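User: Predict the structure for this protein chain, please.
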Amino acid sequence: MSTVLQLREHREVEYRLSQEQVAVIQKSFKDEVVLTPTLIKDHYILRAGSHVGFLQLPGGLTLVIEPKIPIDTIFFLLTFVYDPTKEIFRQEEQRYTTIDGLFEYVVEVFTHQVEDLIARGILRNYQVRHDDLLAIRGKLQIMETLRRRPVIRDRHWCSFSHFTPDVPENVILRATVHMLKFHAYRAADLPSRLRRLERALAEVALDPEPLDLFDLLEFHRLNEHYRPTLSLACLLLEHITFTGAVGRQAFLSFLIDMDWLFEKVIEAFLQRWSPMGLQAVGQRQYALDRGAHVKVRPDVILLRGRKPVFALDAKYKLDPNRADIYQILAYCHALGIQEAALAYPYTEKVPVGRLSIREPGNVGIHYVPIDLSGTPEEIEVKGKAFAERIGQLIHYAYSREDQSVTYAVKA
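Assistant: Here is the predicted structure, written as structure tokens:
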């Protein structure tokens, strides 16, 4: 019998947990859910952080962490990061109302897209293989055969081309299907459809680290139709983990780090509507000290050519102790810039719009809020307005230095 424990982002609840459940949380999710024992035996205070989603735990317990913003907004932010051209998700009304319902909807769309790819015929390519064969195939490797079989030469080492579906695109799809099949879905047909897909991809190797393969992908006319499905696979793989197993029963978890999602959305806004024609790049590493022993990674840097001109630190939840200020000061020092911004949701409260830091450096730090409420169209408008506001701040900073800068917003 399964039990669902509801928890809200950045909230806490008291609940009785088994030692096995405690061990799983402390081993795999100590950053996502903080456990504090109470005076009552086996009772714990569970406090959620910035991750939302669900955790399946031993004993039939599912911990669901709901976000503080609407589910529709979560979905739109995910699509803005993973589907900016709106190739995957359409504008029709969605049927989910919870975070686990959102997960099942994404799995449904992914399953349908993989079914379409298989119906059209999956990608195949020639790969060079080396094998020990009874009959000669391709090119006979004489020296290798003599080395491995110096006496009895009933088999031959050969090098040959093999037309195979075992290509990175299909390896990613099979790994995703394999992970998804362990979940208990509300839709009765999803498990059988996922099992059929895995059988259809049986010739493809099962890679335990499929996310590494995304770096190898190069899209061209032969695999361009895979792009939307692979974007969905990336969304799922980046947020799915196994939490363990009992016998043949595996436990699956789906967690979205809202801090990470907010950072990626801010980066996507600035890349789509780049202020003043500057290039927005995320998570680029810079050295803070001369010996390059201490490295910093600003969330977003705006570049003119190769020169940094502005940095942003995206904070889904501001630090009440102002540690964010020290962090962004380090960014400015490492980049050699004097203006930067803290981007945060409109719901967070700050005392001032701009901090002017005393010498040395004369650094100005701007607090720039963004409202992520409303319909997808309204959020897009607010995203563009946010990018324009950043452009105005940069223009003002350059104007103070009596430099001529042309202000424009990319359409």
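Residues 402-411 have pLDDT under 50 and may be disordered.
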